[in-house]
């Protein structure tokens, strides 16, 4: 029974086996009953024919007594022999039970005995003595009643077998129906209802309701399946809860990473503004305190060369620092400082070349920073150091560029306007001498004309210098400034300059762009003043790391004494080329004209 409780298949198999057994038993009993009733009809017919044969014998015997004859005698003897054959027939004896206690067996034996002991001798007497009284008639009539009784017993025996077969089939049918009913009831209670519950719970679980549980309890397969489903739902609920927690943690980490990235972006944006260091640094420090366990944060700035502290900044202060330059700003002022003990993380603000100060970030001992927080603050300190280093380099480059440009201006003034003024001064002295020595008016007029020409040359040179000094790159990139210069000198020359510009975007530094443009202008100015050219071409190219500027014309070319003729313009161009570590060559072309070539390597490479 325990096995059947643990298996629906076993129960259904047992029901099918019981139904099969009932069917087999019914078939076997039917075969047995059919076999037992085989010959009963023939036996009943034989038994019934004994009555007719008995009456036939009586009739023939009566005819013989009335009209004796050998033929009739033989006929009666044949009927008697036929009767004996029938009463002892195997067909009849086969349907009579061979049980000595059976009524049919005793009745048949008594009939045979009475036939042999009473009726047959009486018939023999009647056949031999026709005058004798017909005693056999009463005996045969009684005998016939007993034959009827035997036939009736045979019929009842056959009917009882048929009733037995019907009863066995009825019992088999009833048991089969009962087994089917029990099996269907078991299927309904232990298969259909649990399956419906499992399907319903599975649908709820598929829609996200992991609280669904199967209440069916059993030791069979569906009970095991229900327990497995409940266990699975419980585990899924735990996994889902854990997954939600992990998602929340990951979301928090992503949010923190996003805040860190935003802080780094804001840091870069703030550090690149042209404001006081406090206005740039304080928002970063305060935002850092909101996204990390650090706070308060102090920054000590030092002179790059002497490493002497010149300013201290703090994200939290109870009073305005002495070095504060914006009196309307109170972003770092707090009511009270945290009295709890803090630990400190100190990082130097420095690059490989320069030390700018110290970055001191405090934190509570029970809330130490994680590696990502430390990496964040290291990135901020590195950005601060890079920003200060770039500012320092920009300031140094600006000073250097300013000094170089002043030196170039001084040389240009000395080589052009200063010499013209010296020449005018000499002419004025000469004019004074001529007037004292009473030279002729024509000679004095010649000196005056020279003074006028000198003044015109000085004024022209002054305008050229002013144009050069006012040159500036308003639009981004060198190409626009070169286009403007080409258009300007094309108008001055009265012809179109053949121009090619093949430099990638943002290849030169601003200082290199200024000097390249000034060399171009000086070379084109020489073409305007001296070349008498009808064709001029300008080419600016970038080949790998080298930048080249080439100006060619088909003019008169250079005389042997270059420096005197060019009014010191070549010296100025040579100085500008040397400033950007370049090489300048000015030479005549074989076919006529002049070729100016400037080559240098950009610092961006």
CA gyration radius, whole angstroms: 70 Å
Shape: rod-shaped
- The helix/strand order is HHHHHHHHHEEEEHHHEHEEHHEE
Strand content is: 5-15%
Number of strands: 9
Tally of helical segments: 15
Q: What ranges have pLDDT less than 50 throughout 5 or more consecutive residues?
A: 562-566
Could you report the average pLDDT, rounded to the nearest whole number? 78
Task: Please describe what this structure looks like.
By secondary structure, the chain is of the alpha+beta class. It is 66% helix and 11% strand. The chain has 15 helices and nine strands. It has helices spanning 2-6, 8-37, 40-66, 70-87, 90-95, 103-128, 135-206, 221-271, 277-291, 371-436, 441-469, 478-493, 510-531, 562-565, 569-579, and strands at 297-302, 309-314, 343-350, 355-363, 498-502, 536-543, 546-553, 583-588, 594-601. Strands 5-6-7-9-8 form a five-stranded mixed sheet, with helices on one face. It has a four-stranded antiparallel sheet with strand order 2-1-4-3, covered by helices on one side. Helix 7 (135-206) packs parallel to helix 8. The two termini are 93 Å apart. Residues 562-566 have low confidence and may be disordered.
Summarize the topology.
Elements: H1 2-6, H2 8-37, H3 40-66, H4 70-87, H5 90-95, H6 103-128, H7 135-206, H8 221-271, H9 277-291, E1 297-302, E2 309-314, E3 343-350, E4 355-363, H10 371-436, H11 441-469, H12 478-493, E5 498-502, H13 510-531, E6 536-543, E7 546-553, H14 562-565, H15 569-579, E8 583-588, E9 594-601
Parallel strand pairs: 5-6
Antiparallel strand pairs: 1-2, 1-4, 3-4, 6-7, 7-9, 8-9
């Amino acid at each position: 029974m325990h096995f059947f409780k643990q298996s629906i298949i076993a129960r259904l198999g047992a029901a099918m086996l019981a139904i099969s057994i009932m069917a087999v038993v019914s078939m076997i009993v039917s075969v047995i009953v059919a076999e037992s009733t085989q010959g009963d009809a023939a036996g009943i017919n034989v038994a019934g024919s004994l009555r007719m044969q008995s009456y036939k014998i009586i009739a023939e015997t009566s005819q013989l007594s009335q009209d004796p004859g050998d033929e009739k005698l033989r006929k009666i003897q044949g009927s008697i022999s036929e009767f004996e054959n029938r009463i002892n027939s195997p067909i009849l004896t086969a349907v009579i039970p061979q049980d000595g206690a059976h009524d049919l067996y005793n009745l048949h034996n008594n009939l045979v005995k009475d036939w042999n002991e009473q009726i047959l001798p009486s018939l023999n007497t009647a056949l031999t003595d026709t005058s004798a009284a017909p005693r056999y008639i009463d005996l045969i009539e009684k005998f016939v009643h007993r034959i009827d009784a035997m036939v009736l017993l045979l019929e009842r025996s056959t009917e009882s077998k048929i009733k037995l077969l019907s009863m066995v089939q009825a019992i088999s049918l009833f048991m089969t129906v009962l087994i089917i009913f029990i099996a269907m009831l078991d299927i309904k209670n232990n298969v259909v209802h649990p399956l419906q519950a499992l399907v319903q719970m599975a649908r709820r679980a598929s829609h996200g309701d992991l609280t669904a549980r199967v209440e069916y309890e059993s030791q069979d397969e569906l009970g095991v399946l229900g327990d497995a489903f409940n266990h699975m739902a419980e585990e899924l609920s735990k996994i889902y809860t854990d997954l939600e927690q992990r998602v929340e943690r990951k979301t928090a980490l992503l949010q923190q990473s996003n805040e860190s990235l935003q802080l780094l972006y804001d840091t870069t944006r703030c550090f690149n503004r042209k404001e006081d260091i406090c206005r740039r640094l304080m928002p970063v420090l305060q935002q850092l305190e909101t996204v990390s366990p650090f706070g308060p944060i102090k920054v000590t700035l030092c002179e790059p060369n002497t490493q002497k502290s010149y300013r201290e900044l703090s994200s939290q202060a109870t009073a305005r620092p002495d070095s504060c330059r914006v009196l309307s700003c109170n972003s770092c002022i707090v009511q009270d400082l945290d009295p709890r003990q803090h630990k400190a993380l100190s990082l130097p603000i420095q690059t490989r070349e320069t030390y700018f100060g110290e970055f001191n970030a405090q934190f509570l001992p029970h809330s130490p920073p994680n590696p990502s927080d430390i990496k964040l603050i290291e990135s901020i300190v590195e950005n601060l150091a890079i920003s200060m280093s770039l500012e320092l380099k920009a300031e140094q480059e600006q000073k250097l560029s300013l000094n170089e440009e002043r030196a170039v201006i001084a040389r240009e003034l000395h080589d052009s306007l200063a010499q013209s003024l010296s020449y005018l001064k000499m002419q004025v002295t000469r004019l004074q001498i001529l007037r004292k020595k009473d030279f002729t008016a024509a000679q004095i007029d010649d000196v005056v004309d020279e003074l006028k020409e000198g003044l015109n040359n000085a004024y022209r040179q002054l305008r050229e210098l002013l144009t050069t000094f006012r040159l500036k790159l308003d639009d981004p990139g060198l190409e626009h400034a070169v286009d403007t210069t080409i258009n300007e000198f094309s108008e001055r020359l009265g012809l179109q300059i053949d121009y090619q510009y093949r430099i990638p975007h943002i290849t030169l530094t601003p200082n290199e762009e200024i000097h390249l443009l000034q060399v171009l202008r000086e070379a084109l100015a020489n073409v305007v003043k001296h070349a008498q050219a009808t064709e001029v071409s300008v080419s600016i190219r970038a080949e790998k790391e080298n930048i080249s500027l080439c100006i060619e014309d088909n003019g008169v070319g250079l005389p042997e004494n270059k420096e005197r003729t060019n009014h010191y313009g070549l010296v100025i161009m040579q100085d500008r080329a040397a400033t950007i570590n370049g090489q300048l060559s000015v030479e005549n072309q074989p076919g006529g004209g002049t070729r100016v070539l400037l080559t240098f390597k950009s610092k961006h490479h």
